[in-house]
Amino acid sequence: MPINQFxxxxxxxxxxxxxxxxxxxxxxxxxxxxxxxxxxxxINLIAFSAYGRDVAGQxxxxxxxxxxxxxxxVGLAIVLLIYRNLHSPDLDQIDQLRG
Amino acid sequence: MLAQNVAFxxxxxxxxxxxxxxVRTKNVVHAALFxxxxxxxxxAQYILIAAEFVAWVQVLIYIGAVIxxxxxxxxxxxxxxxxxxDLDNDQRGPAAIVALGLLAVLIVLLVDAFGAKEIRxxxxxxxxxxxxxxxxxxxxxxxxPFEVVSMLLLAALVGAVAIARRD
Lengths: 99, 167
What we know:
heterodimer; A: mainly alpha; Helix Hairpins; 3 helices; 79% helix; B: mainly alpha; Four Helix Bundle (Hemerythrin (Met), subunit A)
């Protein structure tokens, strides 16, 4: 099984996530795109773990899943706070620091 | 072609379409449901290369917990359940250029670096993904990072509660 097909699938998912982070304005959707990118990294780690017959890649993937859960928790709390203060989850409206 | 290759490409195409759905749909709830398809597809790919423990953790944590968090987030920010026109900002063009450029660079690089490399699907692959092997590795070689990451998770969740509570 060529390792490249996993890496290219992962690259595609990562780039989709990059597009989503740049083009979405809803805070929840931006967090979903970040999840896509983290998931792409996990696919890479698992593929290399199978390629090199080294279990460390799978342990790293588990760590990334944990970090992603923490990131979603804090991120959604921040989006919720933005919604409560601005009455909209729209990230383009956060321009209070603009001169 | 191997049966695993056929299964890989079927799942990969479904994942790619669903990933585009996450970033293109006009309905916030549909985006969360498309994300479920992508994450389940990733779990299927892990099963294909015998990483069974990570696959089930993926199903439990991502599909079970993270998606529920997202749905709560959608509910609490009172996103409308029907399609909305204004989910994208005005930099869709530049974003597409950046993403496609990055994809082109990555594909050229990956084909150049790993073009002929194969994952050997032999019996010893099963030993790598065994739950016992993963557990051994976590609690011997990676026990300090494991403790650090559990403290980080605790701190992050306490922080999330502290940020989001009303006072």
